[in-house]
Amino acid sequence: METRRKFLGLEWKASPKRIALVGVGVVVVAVAALWLLTWGFERGAAARVFDRLDQIPANEVGVVLGAASSTYYFQYRMDAAAALYKAGKIKRILVSGANHDSSYNEPKEMRASLLRLGVPAAAIIPDYAGFRTLDSIVRAKTVFGLAKFTVVSQREHNCRALFIAAHKGIDAIAFNAEDAPSEYQPRNQLREALARALAVLDVFVLDRQPRRSGAVAPL
């Protein structure tokens, strides 16, 4: 059964088959757009992401991006940050994450983990308002006075963080923490693709700023 509909002043026949084809076309275009976006992020960050300690340049400060402490992502980021510190590639560590309430405090958990890994307390600085990656990266500059630093997270997350940094006038490089086991990858890759699309909107369309600005407290 066909019905007639108008779109932009033109009449077209809306049969179930045609509607299904349009739906498939929309999905294909969306998938292609996300793939191109991912390719662009990876290409843009290729020269600034590092897997090996002996290859990454040294910086004064490393900015570790937050995650829930119960995840592989969290522990591998802490391991990577501690390794950078012990190798002399960073001297201080800004742990930036969400702090929603007394029962969920990423910077507190990050600090405790780094202390267990042998990083001295004096080298760890918390940022309790890193609610999103954009917040963590921008606040590192606007609140903590950092125009240059090393981001620590998994590779895909690092590429997004470097995209934000580049468009905020920040000279950042990144060290890739070990990724989570393969069974966690599909869900994370979908989440990351959507997060990258949002990052483009944040930077080019919405000009989004951190949820909390705060007084400047240079490190």
Descriptive notes:
There is one protein chain. By secondary structure, the protein is an alpha/beta fold. The chain has two domains: 43 residues; 159 residues, HUPs (Rossmann fold, 3-Layer(aba) Sandwich). Helix content is 46%, strand content 20%. The protein contains six helices and ten strands, in the order ββαββαβββαβαβαβα. The chain has a six-stranded parallel β-sheet with strand order 3-10-9-4-5-8, sandwiched between helices. The chain has a two-stranded antiparallel ribbon with strand order 1-2. Strands 6-7 form a two-stranded antiparallel sheet. Helix 5 links the parallel strand 9 and strand 10. Helix 1 packs across helix 5 and helix 5 runs parallel beside helix 6. The longest helix is centred in the N-terminal third of the chain and has 30 residues. The radius of gyration is 21 Å and the shape is globular. The termini are far apart.
Descriptive labels:
219 residues; alpha/beta; Rossmann fold; 2 domains; 6-stranded parallel β-sheet; two-stranded antiparallel ribbon
Approximate shape: globular
> Could you give a short account of the major beta sheet?
6 strands, parallel
Question: Please, how many helices?
Answer: 6
From the alpha carbons, calculate the radius of gyration and give it in angstroms.
21 Å
State the oligomer.
single chain
SS content category: alpha/beta
Architecture of the largest domain in CATH? 3-Layer(aba) Sandwich
Q: In CATH, what is the homologous superfamily of the largest domain?
A: HUPs
Determine and state the CATH class of the largest domain. Answer: Alpha Beta
Helix content: 40-55%
List the uncertain runs. Answer: 27-32
For the termini, the CA-CA separation is 69 Å
Q: Give, in order, the helices and strands.
A: EEHEEHEEEHEHEHEH
**How many domains in all?**
2
Largest beta sheet: strand ordering? 3-10-9-4-5-8
Find the CATH topology of the largest domain: Rossmann fold
Give average pLDDT, whole number. 85
Strand content: 15-25%
Secondary structure: number of strands: 10
